[in-house]
C-alpha cells in the first residue's frame, strides 16, 4: 500500500510545542517567528523532516502558515481547510484564520508590537513572500529579520533525517525529448535574454529538464535538488550524491556536473564574483539564494522559471502517455465503482476499506508506481471537508441515503491521473440530485468550452459556477489545476480559477472539478482531467478556437442526475461521454462488471 491511515494530528501537543518554540525565541532575542508549510524548494509536497507546521500545530493540510508571537499565535489556511484546521489544531493556542479573507500580512500589521523582531528562515520563504512580510512588519513599526538555523528545528527533538532516495532516469519513450535537447533549448533562451545563468529551485523543473525522477516525497516522484544552467550549455546539479547511482550518472552524461548539495553556496558566490546576470523566479526561489547572490555581487534578473511553460505544454509522447494512463486508470475506476455499487448498500464498506480497494484495483494493472496523493474518501458529512484525509479514528461506514465522495489519483510511468466521483449509496433525495446536477452543468460548461488563443483560466472559471451562482451557491476552491507528466498532480502555471491568469496553451493538462459542499451533510465534486486542444475552425465561425479533450474515463453517477435540469446540449455531452467510457473500458472488464457498466453508462 502506498498510503496509511494513521491519525497524524494531535491538537493536545500544540500548547507544549508552542511554549518550547517561544522559549527558544526568547533565548535568541526574537519576538515572533513564521512557520510556513514549505521546504527549501517551496513546493506543495515536502519530506517528513520539513513538516514543521504539522509538528508544531497538528495541521496536516498541504498549504498553510503559522505566526507565533510571544503572547499569541494564528494559523492561516485557505478555503479547502477551514473545517479541517479546527479539528486538528488547538484553537486556544493557534487562532484559525482564512488565508485570503484574513491574510497573515494584515494580522502581522495589527498584532506585531512596535519595535519587535519578527524572524523567518530565509530557506523557507520566497523572494516575493519576504518582501510582503517585510512591508507588513514595517507597517507595524517592527522589523522582519532572517535567522541562521531554524529555531523550530532546535526544539524538534526527534526531527527525521532528510531523504536519500535514489534518483533514476525517466525513459525517453515517456519524456519525448532528450535531456540534452531540453538543456540546449533552455540555455539558448538564456543567451537571448542576455542572462548568464539561471538557478532552478523547483524539483519538478529539474526532473523535467534532466529527465530524472526521485522518491524524496510521498506520492510525487521528485528528486529534491537544486540546479544551475549556464549560458554555455552546461548545467550543475546540486544533490546528495548518495542518491546518484551509475545508471543515472551515465544518463546525465557530460551535460550535467553532479555536485554535493553543500556546494550550492560556493557556486552562487562564483556567479557573484563573475558579476554574472542570474535569472531567479521570485515566486518560487528561496530568499536565501537571492541574498547569497546579492551579497556576492551578482546581478539578479527577476523572471519566471524557464522550465515552467515548456513543462506544462506536453509533447506528443507525453500526451499519448497521458491517454494510455487514463485508459488504464478508467478500467480500475470502473471496477471500483461497480464494487462500491454492489457492496456499500450492505453496510460493510468503510471509507478506509473503499480507499484500499481502489488502490488494489489500480495495483492490479501491474503498472502503478504510487498514488498521486492521499485518497480523499469521504462519506456523508466527511465529504463536505474539501481535502478530507480519512484516518482510523475518523473512518465512517458508507450508509444508504448518503453521498460518498472519492478523489484519487495514480502515478504511472506514462502519466499522472486525478479523478473525483461522487456516488449515491442507495436512493438519493431530491436536493442531492439537484445539487449534483448543478455541479454537473458547471463541469459540462468547462468541458465543452471553446475559446480563442490568449484565454486564461480566470476567464473560463465562471462557466463552472454559473448554475450554482443562479441558485445562490458556490464552492471555495479553484475549478482546475495543472497536472504533470509522471510528476506533480498540481502543476503551474495553468489553472482554472479566479486567479488563473496564465494563458491556456495547447498540450496543457488541467483538471475540471467544480463542487458543492453542505457542511455537516455531504460533499459533491465531479473531476476529470483534460488536454487543451489546438485551435480549430468552427463551422460558420471566423476565428479558430481552442477547446478541451477529456482524458478521464469513468462513469458519472446517473442516479444523481436530474435530466430535467440539463439542456439538450448538456444531455448530448453526457451521453457521448458515457458512450466513450463504454467503448474504451468495457472490453477490459469481466462479464459481471460489463453488466454494471452497461447500466452505468446508459443513455439518458
Please, could you describe this protein's structure?
The chain is an alpha+beta fold and 604 residues long. The chain folds into three domains: 145 residues, Creatine Amidinohydrolase, Chain A, domain 1, CATH 3.40.350.10; 141 residues, Creatinase/prolidase N-terminal domain (Creatine Amidinohydrolase, Chain A, domain 1, 3-Layer(aba) Sandwich); 287 residues, Creatinase/methionine aminopeptidase superfamily (Creatine Amidinohydrolase). The protein is 35% helix and 19% strand. The protein is built from 19 helices and 27 strands. The strands form eight sheets. The chain has a six-stranded mixed sheet with strand order 4-3-2-1-5-6. A six-stranded mixed sheet has the order 12-11-10-8-13-14, sandwiched between helices. The chain is globular. The mean pLDDT is 96.
| Mean pLDDT across residues | 96
Annotated CATH topology of the largest domain: Creatine Amidinohydrolase
Query: How far apart are the termini?
Result: 38 Å
Helix content: 25-40%
- The value of Rg in angstroms is 25 Å
Shape: globular
Low-confidence stretches: none
Could you say how many structural domains there are in total? Answer: 3
Strand content: 15-25%
Amino acid at each position: 500500500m502506498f498510503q496509511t491511515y494513521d491519525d497524524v494530528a494531535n491538537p493536545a501537543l500544540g500548547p507544549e510545542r508552542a511554549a518550547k518554540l517561544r522559549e527558544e525565541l526568547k533565548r535568541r532575542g526574537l519576538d515572533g517567528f513564521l512557520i510556513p508549510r514549505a521546504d527549501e524548494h517551496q513546493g506543495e509536497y515536502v519530506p517528513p523532516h520539513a513538516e514543521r507546521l504539522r509538528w508544531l500545530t497538528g495541521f496536516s493540510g498541504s498549504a498553510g502558515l503559522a505566526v507565533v508571537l510571544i503572547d499569541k499565535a494564528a494559523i492561516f489556511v485557505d478555503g479547502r481547510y477551514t473545517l479541517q484546521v479546527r479539528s486538528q489544531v488547538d484553537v486556544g493556542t493557534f487562532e484559525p484564520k482564512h488565508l485570503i479573507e484574513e491574510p497573515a500580512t494584515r494580522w502581522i500589521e495589527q498584532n506585531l508590537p512596535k519595535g519587535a523582531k519578527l524572524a523567518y528562515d530565509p530557506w523557507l520563504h520566497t523572494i516575493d513572500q519576504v518582501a510582503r512580510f517585510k512591508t507588513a512588519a514595517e507597517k507595524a513599526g517592527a522589523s522582519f529579520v532572517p535567522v541562521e538555523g531554524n529555531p523550530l528545528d532546535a526544539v524538534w527533538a526527534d526531527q527525521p533525517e532528510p531523504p536519500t532516495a535514489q534518483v533514476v532516469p525517466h525513459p525517453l519513450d515517456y519524456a519525448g525529448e532528450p535531456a540534452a535537447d531540453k538543456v540546449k533549448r533552455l540555455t539558448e533562451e538564456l543567451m537571448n535574454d542576455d542572462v548568464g545563468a539561471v538557478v532552478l529551485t523547483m524539483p519538478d523543473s529539474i526532473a523535467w529538464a534532466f529527465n530524472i525522477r526521485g522518491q524524496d516525497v510521498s506520492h510525487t516522484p521528485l528528486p529534491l535538488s537544486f540546479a544551475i544552467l549556464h549560458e554555455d550549455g552546461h548545467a550543475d546539479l546540486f544533490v546528495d550524491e548518495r542518491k546518484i547511482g551509475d545508471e543515472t550518472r551515465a544518463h546525465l552524461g557530460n551535460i550535467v556536473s553532479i555536485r554535493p548539495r553543500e556546494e550550492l553556496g560556493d557556486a552562487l558566490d562564483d556567479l557573484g564574483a563573475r558579476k554574472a546576470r542570474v535569472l531567479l523566479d521570485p515566486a518560487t526561489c528561496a530568499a536565501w539564494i537571492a541574498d547569497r547572490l546579492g551579497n556576492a555581487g551578482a546581478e539578479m534578473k527577476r523572471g519566471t522559471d524557464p522550465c515552467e511553460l515548456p513543462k506544462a505544454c506536453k509533447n506528443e509522447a507525453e500526451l499519448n502517455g497521458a491517454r494510455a494512463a487514463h485508459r488504464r486508470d478508467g478500467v480500475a475506476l470502473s471496477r471500483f465503482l461497480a464494487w462500491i455499487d454492489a457492496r456499500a448498500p450492505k453496510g460493510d464498506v468503510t471509507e478506509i476499506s473503499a480507499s484500499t480497494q481502489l488502490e488494489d484495483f489500480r495495483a492490479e494493472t501491474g503498472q502503478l508506481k504510487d498514488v498521486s496523493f492521499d485518497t480523499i474518501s469521504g462519506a456523508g458529512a466527511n465529504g463536505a471537508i474539501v481535502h478530507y484525509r480519512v484516518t482510523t479514528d475518523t473512518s465512517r461506514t458508507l450508509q444508504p441515503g448518503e453521498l460518498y465522495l472519492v478523489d484519487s489519483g495514480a502515478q504511472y510511468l506514462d502519466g499522472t491521473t486525478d479523478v473525483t466521483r461522487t456516488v449515491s449509496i442507495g436512493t438519493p433525495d431530491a436536493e442531492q440530485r439537484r445539487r449534483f446536477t448543478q455541479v454537473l452543468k458547471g463541469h459540462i460548461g468547462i468541458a465543452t468550452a471553446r475559446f480563442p488563443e490568449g484565454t486564461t483560466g480566470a476567464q473560463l472559471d465562471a462557466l463552472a459556477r454559473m448554475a450554482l451562482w443562479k441558485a445562490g451557491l458556490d464552492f471555495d476552491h479553484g475549478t482546475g489545476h495543472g497536472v504533470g507528466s509522471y510528476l506533480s498532480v498540481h502543476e503551474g502555471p495553468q489553472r482554472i480559477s479566479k486567479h488563473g491568469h496564465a494563458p491556456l496553451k495547447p498540450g496543457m493538462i488541467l483538471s475540471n472539478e467544480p463542487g458543492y459542499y453542505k457542511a455537516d451533510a455531504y460533499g459533491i465534486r465531479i473531476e476529470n482531467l483534460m488536454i487543451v486542444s489546438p485551435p480549430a475552425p468552427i463551422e460558420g465561425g471566423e476565428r479558430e478556437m481552442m477547446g478541451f479533450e477529456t482524458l478521464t474515463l469513468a462513469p458519472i453517477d446517473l442516479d444523481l442526475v436530474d435530466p430535467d435540469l440539463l439542456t439538450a446540449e448538456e444531455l448530448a455531452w453526457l451521453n457521448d461521454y458515457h458512450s466513450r467510457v463504454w467503448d474504451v473500458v468495457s472490453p477490459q472488464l469481466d462479464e459481471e462488471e460489463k453488466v454494471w457498466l452497461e447500466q452505468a453508462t446508459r443513455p439518458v
